[in-house]
Amino acid sequence: MLKIRKSLYLKKAGRFLSILVGLELIAVSVSMFFAPHKIAAGGATGIAILVKELLNVQMPLTLLVFNIFMWILTMIFLDKAQAAKITFGSIVLPIFLAVTPNTQVIQDALLSDIIGSILFGLGLSIIYRMGSSAGGTTVPPMILNKYFHIRNANSLFVIDGIVCLGNILVSGWEQFFLAILSVGISTIVLNYVQTGLDKKLVVYIMSENKLEEIKAKLTAQMAIGSTVFDVRGGHSNQPKEMLMLVADTQSYGSILDIIYDIDQNAFILTDSIAEVHNGSF
């Protein structure tokens, strides 16, 4: 019992530290890479950069006020569970932004934009992975989705686009295009890390009369476990068997060689998968 409690405490502590690391990565990307070059790359932090350039209001203050307003909207239009989810990040991120030096680390704006975008996407992915949120502009899409059934991704894209357009009025066209590039890079990093770095392939195989031989050879030569499904042909309406296996991308070529050595007419369907937990490959 004591060991279980200790394990739970360690897990919670690890989750808490991971969220802190994610928030600090966002703060670093904004303070050291975006803000020095006046790049407002979407989101609440982008709004904070625009306000700083227009009204000379410090970014942490703008972000805190904006996040509090979003928290209030969450309590009114969503629920307490969603509000609780964004509370920690909404408060801590402005604090981290305040204590992180607002220093220009890289003079080249393009390089600074790329590195900042990678850090920003990595920070967001860590936070989302831990089931938390930094609040900000993620709140309006949730409200729009609840009441008007507008997809979160679509409304968030529009909001980020409006913030990026603000660069034209405040800083110029160069910052606008850098902001668009930043949103793209951050999204790629976020999606890539969120869905796992160690991607696998799922392969479905059907053969008229040599499926058992294919399965046996794959097991013997590749040490790959597999699952057999009972299926039915859509045209013939006849019962068939389909073999499913999960493998590393490096093994895919060898798997195809083994299959086609046995049956040149085998039907093979392959798709990429984000993560695999447990099992053997």
Count of β-strands: 4
Q: pLDDT average, as an integer? A: 87
Q: Work out the strand percent.
A: 5-15%
Oligomer: single chain
| Biggest β-sheet description | 4 strands, antiparallel
Secondary structural class: alpha+beta
How many helices does DSSP assign?
10
**What Rg, in angstroms, do the CA atoms define?**
25 Å
Distance between the termini: 34 Å
Description:
With 281 residues, this protein is an alpha+beta fold. The protein has two domains: 2-194, no CATH class; 200-273, Alpha-Beta Plaits (2-Layer Sandwich). It has a four-stranded antiparallel sheet, covered by helices on one side. It has helices spanning 2-34, 43-55, 59-77, 80-99, 109-129, 139-148, 152-170, 173-194, 211-222, 252-262; strands at residues 200-206, 226-232, 239-248, 267-273. Helices cover 64% and strands 11% of the residues. Helix 2 packs parallel to helix 7 (152-170) and helix 7 (152-170) packs antiparallel against helix 8 (173-194). Residues 225-277 form the DUF2179 domain. It is found in: Cell membrane.
